[in-house]
Amino acid sequence: xxxxxxxxxxxxxxxxxxxxxxxxxxxxxxxxxxxxxxxxxxxxxxxxxxxxxxxxxxxxxxxxxxxxxxxxxxxxxxxxxxxxxxxxxxxxxxxxxxxxxxxxxxxxxxxxxxxxxxxxxxxxxxxxxxxxxxxxxxxxxxxxxxxxxxxxxxxxxxxxxxxxxxxxxxxxxxxxxxxxxxxxxxxxxxxxxxxxxxxxxxxxxxxxxxxxxxxxxxxxxxxxxxxxxxxxxxxxxx
Length: 238
Hints:
By secondary structure, the chain is an alpha+beta fold. The chain is built from twelve helices and nine strands.
């Protein structure tokens, strides 16, 4: 995979993917799609593949091709626009954060972003404390309210990531469908437990199990003990 268009098509096809693979989290990653399953990221430093995926994590959401932030299993990850719409918890307006139970710092960042995307360095100044800012922006990402939107060059040092409201980059609000999201998850991982789903999409365990049971009841997944299989996989064992 060598083009951002193919990267976007990959995320759209799988629905969700990590930036880099993580031990114990058996979901797709953009790194593996680019470099192969056996390649170790940063094994020899910042090579061409590392540069490519690192740039795409900012460019894909900037072009509204895929959402990026700290979400799937609490790691840097991409969501396709369709899955994002199914999971997005707020209205589609820039003030949607006001209806959610967030920390004061998270509300402050979301309010600051109503004027447009801002560099992370500027938002840190708004909050006044680096640690408090970092916790708040991760909180907003885990609620899918903000995403990256490119980078801004600095006078010195690394470029500063631009942060923007998700609702300005993507068509969200009013399309929530957690059952469809759960079905997509099973279709990607093929063999999932309620704990796997809860960890991936940050749902309570009971909620994840309820959705999986609903899929099994409608033959959209097959339950075998504590696991739920995609129907095509289950058919191979009959």
